[in-house]
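Q: Ferrous iron transport protein A, please. Structure only.
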Amino acid sequence: MRLSDLPLRKAAHISAIDWALLGEAEGKRLRELGFDEGVAIEALHHGSIFGRDPIAYRVGRMTVAIRRAQASAIRVALA
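A: Structure for Ferrous iron transport protein A:
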């Protein structure tokens, strides 16, 4: 399933990231924030702006907000 489709408060692990779908700067930022295969992740809440962007995730011990388009490039498996 895509990270953008992960239900709130469901634990998952990143199974794959399609770096080709992300721009160079986006990919670099996600790597710096700890996004990588095997990392535990949980959707915390959706933004209130049109399209429910951005989405806040718990990545390890951090809370990170990313756009839905970026989250669509990340595949997760439920824990």
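A: Brief note, in case it's useful. DSSP finds two helices and five strands in the chain.
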